[in-house]
Specification:
This protein is an alpha/beta fold. It has two domains: 182 residues, Aspartate Aminotransferase, domain 1 (Alpha-Beta Complex), CATH 3.90.1150.10; 233 residues, Type I PLP-dependent aspartate aminotransferase-like (Major domain) (Aspartate Aminotransferase, domain 2, 3-Layer(aba) Sandwich). It has 14 helices and twelve strands. The strands form four sheets. The chain has a four-stranded mixed sheet with strand order 1-9-8-5. Strands 3-2-4 form a three-stranded parallel sheet. Strand 2, helix 4 and strand 3 form a beta-alpha-beta unit. Helix 1 crosses helix 8, helix 9 runs parallel beside helix 12 and helix 10 crosses helix 13. The longest helix is centred in the first third of the chain and has 22 residues. The chain binds pyridoxal-5'-phosphate. The site of pyridoxal-5'-phosphate has 16 residues, from helix 3 and helix 4.
């Protein structure tokens, strides 16, 4: 494979030598299945059934078959799925729930919304997944659940997490929002613990045309609770045995997702091919020591919701600005770990409490990995990274730092028009 030769300095790169690359291009997916989607939406509109209904029931059955779990209960979002799971497990005010801090906000906010206390565990620096040794250290008599997050599409180390939960006698809620079809020793995520929580947010591997989510469980008692909790605890109509929430999936979402589900396997394979190609390209450029690419996971199927690299020497933000200036979309998942979020300051966590989490928040960068990404676009991404990382380092001055910030927050209009920097509403998590 011939790769563009890295120029001596970033400044010597001709601006137009490579095309721009979006972080995510949902329009490409839509173009391929547009007619099927429109027909499905029209069918729902004709039926006049807009909430739950036959499409939702069918989708739940199809997901149960795809994930090999006995129960699938859909709901209004992945965030609600986490909340419903903790409600079904009867998490009470003051109970402790161990969660990673390096994850999307909803993993911990579901805990605090019930008046329970998130106890943050650090991560493994190579996989960015919850560190089982730290989970063990943070167990207490008040621990009532564990929430491993299968972040970026890689299943957490369930060989270690499940025995810890079993010994402590606490249930495991899998945050599988980013990991649909990922496996662990052949079993699908979501069916490994007591409850699995998934998101249909549009950036996810199976994304709807808006918000949505679902839960999986192998437990009949939990499934029955979840079905009640998502409809205000109502059964029969207007008789409420418990206080639930309103968290139902729309029929239009279900109809769209039913069109997409049969493609999920091939889209997942395309993500895996793209991940493999990135690894080959990075190896060819020989950027060892300057960038760390994710490793393989022999114990399970990684579904690559994100391809996240670690950038050494404090150069992540400058690299991101360089990529933005050349039309390559990237994102930082996540710039502020949850234990340092302002809204959680009442919990008393300090900077330095979770060193690997804090280091990841400063060093990681997500690159485009969506299924329709082309090989040429990937060469562009890696070529741009190489030209930057091989260029001599410039001393950081306040003016230099300010120019990096403005390149990130205010990229050229041409990039915004082309979608190269991603749409703000589509790159939240
Ligand atoms: C790890 C994780 N947990 C939970 C959620 C919440 O899902 P939703 O956006 O559907 O509420 C997301 C993403 O959105 C996520 O990435």
């Amino acid at each position: 494979m011939t790769l563009p030769t890295a120029p001596e300095t970033v400044a010597s790169v001709p601006q137009e030598w490579l095309p721009s690359v979006p972080l995510l291009a949902l329009d490409r997916q839509y173009a391929a299945i547009k007619h099927e989607i429109r027909t499905a939406i029209e069918r729902v509109c004709d039926s006049g059934r807009f909430v739950l209904g036959p499409d939702v029931t069918e989708l739940e059955a199809e997901l149960a078959r795809a994930l090999h779990v006995p129960h699938v209960i859909s709901c209004a979002s992945g965030s609600d799925a986490l909340l419903l799971a903790l409600m079904a497990l009867d998490i009470q005010p003051g109970d402790e729930v161990i969660v990673p801090s390096y994850t999307f906000f909803a993993t911990a906010s579901a805990v605090t919304r019930l008046g329970a206390v998130p106890i943050f565990a650090d991560i493994d620096p190579l996989t960015y997944l919850i560190d089982p040794a730290d989970v063990e250290r943070k167990l207490s008599k008040r621990t009532k659940a564990l929430i491993p997050v299968h972040l970026f599409g890689r299943t957490a180390d369930m060989d270690a997490v499940m025995p810890i939960a079993k010994a402590a006698g606490v249930p495991v809620v899998e945050d599988a929002a980013q990991s649909i079809l990922s496996t662990w020793h052949g079993d699908c995520s979501g069916g490994l613990g007591d409850v699995g929580c998934f998101s249909f947010y549009p950036t996810k591997n199976l994304g709807g045309a808006g918000d949505g989510g679902f839960l999986t469980t192998t437990r009949d008692d939990v499934a029955a609770q979840l079905k009640l909790l998502r409809v205000h605890g109502m059964e029969p109509r207007y008789y409420h045995s418990l206080v639930g929430i309103n968290s139902r999936l729309d029929s239009i979402q279900a109809a769209v997702l039913r069109v997409k589900l049969p493609y999920l396997d091939q889209w997942t394979t395309a993500r895996q091919v793209n991940a493999g190609r990135y690894m080959e390209l990075f190896a060819e450029y020989d950027l060892d020591g300057r960038i760390v690419v994710p490793g393989d996971e022999p114990r399970g199927r990684h579904v690559w919701n994100q391809f996240v690299v670690r950038v050494a020497d404090g150069r992540r933000d400058a690299l991101r600005a360089h990529l933005a200036a050349h039309g390559v979309g990237t994102e930082i998942y996540y710039p502020v770990p949850l234990h340092l979020q302002k809204c959680f300051s009442f919990l008393g966590w300090q900077k330095g409490d979770l060193p690997e989490t804090e280091r990841a928040a400063e060093e990681t960068l997500a690159l485009p990995i969506f299924p329709e990404l082309t090989a040429d676009e990937q060469r562009t991404v890696v070529g741009r990274i190489a030209e930057f990382l091989r260029a001599p380092q410039v001393a950081r001055t306040p003016a230099h730092a300010a120019s990096i910030d403005s390149a990130i927050t205010d990229p050229p209009h041409v990039l915004r028009r082309s979608g190269a920097v991603g749409r703000a509403d589509e790159v939240r998590c």
